[in-house]
Specification:
single chain; 118 residues; alpha+beta; three-stranded antiparallel sheet
Length: 118
């Protein structure tokens, strides 16, 4: 790409951090610079997703602790969720994505509503 100010060949650099990529285009001759930011779809997804605990989970201390840790529920509320099922929490995709691996290392049966595309 050529500099729009002086016509010299520009340099570009891409910097990624999590779900965001910043692209910097700079002219080494005159210093003209433009920066653009690209965000992955998950950042802009404003759908509220619910993690729903399914019926039939084992009421184990490890499972109760995990639900408490990721949802903020106390141990008694977590035990009730394991016993009766129900919505553990509702959040945006960007917040749900980090909880999934934590639940997956346990034997807690759950699903996400609506269908989670990430």
């Amino acid at each position: 790409m050529k500099c729009i100010k002086c016509g010299y060949k520009t340099n570009s650099e891409s910097i990624s951090a999590g779900y965001v990529t910043e692209i910097v285009v700079k002219c080494p001759n005159c210093g003209w610079t433009v920066v653009t930011t690209e965000m992955m779809d998950i950042v802009n997804d404003l759908t509220k997703y619910s993690i729903v605990i399914d019926l039939g989970n084992a009421v184990e201390k490890e499972n109760m602790r995990m639900i408490s840790k990721v949802s903020g529920h106390n141990i008694l509320e977590s035990k009730k969720l394991l016993t009766d099922g129900g919505i553990m929490l509702s959040e945006f995709a960007i917040n749900i994505i980090d909880i999934i691996p934590q639940l997956d290392i346990t034997n807690i049966k759950y699903h996400i509503e609506p269908e989670f595309p990430y």
